[in-house]
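Deliverable D5.2: sample structural annotation.
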Amino acid sequence: MPLDFTAIDFETANSSSASACAVGLARVRDGRVVASDGWLIRPPSGHDRFFEVNIGIHGIRPADVAGADSWSDQLPRLRAFIGDDVLVAHNAGFDMTVLRRACETTGEAWPASQYVCSVQVARKTYDLASYRLPIAAAAAGHLDFAHHEATADALACAQIMIDSAARAGATDVVELAMLLGVRVPQLPVAEPIGVAIG
């Protein structure tokens, strides 16, 4: 199998995991970035208050997302970009929780998806004082990007995975994870809150 995956990064409006206000994506095919995209998202109602601390991190303000698609409206575009790819994110627990919680909050479904955390991959690949995205990306040769701009972060994450796979001699993401002893969890199917299952 070739080194194919989609790197993803979310920014949030506040401390709620459902408050996605931007997404960035980078599609990798055969070990090369072949497409990237990103857009602003109007956070779900009830999760749409912007905290100053979050604004200070990513610079996105309420006025910036006023005309953006809602989580539900942008979801088909997100699904279309990702397809059936394994997802990769730097600190994947955060980004996968945003994806799942925003879907649950808005009553949207999301299919079960495999994912890999590039922080864990970086820890097994590089000897660094910190594994924050800018430092790990620099170790992969990806320098001077706009940290906390979602698409730039997704591209940086993709480069960490591409470099790590080359160093490990891995031909696909699952093989890379296996060689490094990193888990490939599955994001469970996102079900709307309050919906009975079974």
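Annotation notes: Confidence is low (pLDDT under 50) at residues 194-198. Residues 113 and 187 are 5 Å apart (CA to CA).
The annotation will be released with the project's public dataset once the embargo ends.
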